[in-house]
Amino acid sequence: MEKGVPIRAICRAISVLQAVNRMGPLTMMEIAKAAGVPYPTAFRLVQTLIYEGMIDLDPNLKRYKPTALVQSLSCGFQDSELLVEVARPHIISLTRRIGWPISISSRVGHNMILRDSTHANTSLTFERYYPGFTLPILDSASGRLCLAFTPKEERDALLRWLRVSKLVDSEYLKGTSDALNLDQIKEQGYAVQGRNLHNLTPGKTASIAIPIFKDDEFLAAITVVFFISSMSVDAALSRYLDEMRYVSLKISEVFQEN
Predict the structure, then answer these.
(1) What's the pTM value of the predicted model, to 2 decimals?
(2) Helices (H), the chain
(3) Peptide bond into 66 cis (omega under 30)
(4) How far apart, in Å, are the Cα atoms of 189 and each of 16, 104, 221?
(5) N or C: which end of the chain has fewer CB within 10 A?
(6) What is the pLDDT of residues 68-107, one digit of tens each?
(7) For residue 242, is pLDDT > 90?
């Protein structure tokens, strides 16, 4: 087995747990679809997670939901607390000014993880998104922004892992930096996603993401999400980019060395 190849069963179990934790309560069929695994595999994994106390069956709904024990998985993870504490008032204020929801996300492995958002603070959204929601790093505005500001050695290692794990088509990964315009993204200081395909309402929204820095290194992305039917990406950039940059600067100032 090539070095770096993940254990497939563990990857699938994590996918099942993430699906239930993010979207539950779910039926077994919905779990299989959301996690991208065959129904018999989903059944075995769910039974294992029930045995471990991470998932429970709601007898009234006949659906599976996460238990309080899933919180134990985050007990040692505290580095995002200050980020959320600092960013929260700024993104709420920005949403009040422009109307659209704002999110804060950072990279964990090969995904961007939502740390906080203002979807619950505006009517200009199709769905509410909560901390823990994941986006693919190669196919999201925040993910490409993160890659653009990630040091080349670290970025190359991440892309090698994606290639070896076969989570992304190998042909797609050829010349990734050029294909994703990473140099251009870094130079201009923002990334866009003209059509978000990996959210709860695929194809209905677009995004603009700009970086938050800690000691001049990428810490997280601040992203505005808007309806595709409401305006073009160019119009959104013209209207909101300066305000987003101001908010990003105010948040980043807290994380700069004295």
Answers:
(1) 0.71
(2) 8-23, 28-35, 39-51, 80-98, 141-149, 152-165, 170-173, 176-179, 182-188, 233-254
(3) no
(4) 35, 16, 11
(5) C
(6) 777 667 655 555 688 999 999 999 999 999 999 999 999 8
(7) yes
